[in-house]
Amino acid sequence: MCLGIPGQIIEITDVGRQMALAEISGVRREVSVTCVANGRLDDLVGSWALIHVGFAMALIDEEEAARTLKALHDLGEVQAALDAMEAQG
Q1: Are 44 and 9 in contact (CB under 8 A)?
Q2: For 22-36, what is the mean pLDDT?
Q3: pLDDT of residue 2
Q4: How crowded is residue 7: how many other Cβ atoms within 10 Å of its Cβ?
Q5: DSSP state of 44
Q6: I want to staple 22 with a disulfide (CB 3.0 to 4.6 A). Which of 7, 80, 82, 83 is the partner?
Q7: How far apart are CA 54 and CA 1, in angstroms?
Q8: Is residue 58 scored above 80 in pLDDT?
Q9: Domain 5-88: assigned CATH number
């Protein structure tokens, strides 16, 4: 299964290579913005994107990003509870 995680583009790091710094749940990673580049790369700063294996795959709005991050957080809590139940036997 492929999963895109919301991240916010915070800085363009290399215009020639179309690379940017994205913050994903507090972690900063360099990602390619080639798939979402449409005009000036600086216009992407502040935008939210779905990030998958180092690529910004699609732009999303801030509300969608917040909903997706909450759902991922909730899924993590559910998985932790399931793991705890399994460990208890």
Answers
A1: yes
A2: 94
A3: 64
A4: 26
A5: G
A6: 7
A7: 16
A8: yes
A9: 2.30.30.140
Q: State residue 44's pLDDT score.
A: 98
Using only C-alpha atoms, what is the Rg of the chain? Answer: 16
The one-letter amino acid at 68 = T
Q: What are phi and psi of 64, to 5 degrees?
A: -65, -40
Please give the structure tokens belonging to residue 21: 């710094």
Asked whether residue 31 carries a pLDDT value surpassing 90, the answer given is: yes
Query: What is the separation of C-alpha 64 from the centre of its chain, rounded to a whole number of angstroms?
Result: 11
Residue 80 has what pLDDT?
Answer: 72
Q: What is the mean pLDDT of residues 75-84?
A: 74
Which letter, b or e, does each residue of 19-46 get, where b requires 16 or more Cβ atoms within 10 Å of its Cβ? Answer: bbbbeeeeeeeebbbebbeeeebeebee
Band of the pLDDT at 85, cuts 50, 70, 90?
Answer: low
Helix (H) or strand (E) holding 70: helix 62-88
Q: Do 41 and 28 meet the contact criterion of CB atoms below 8 Å apart?
A: no
Residues 16 and 34: their CA atoms lie apart, in Å, by 10
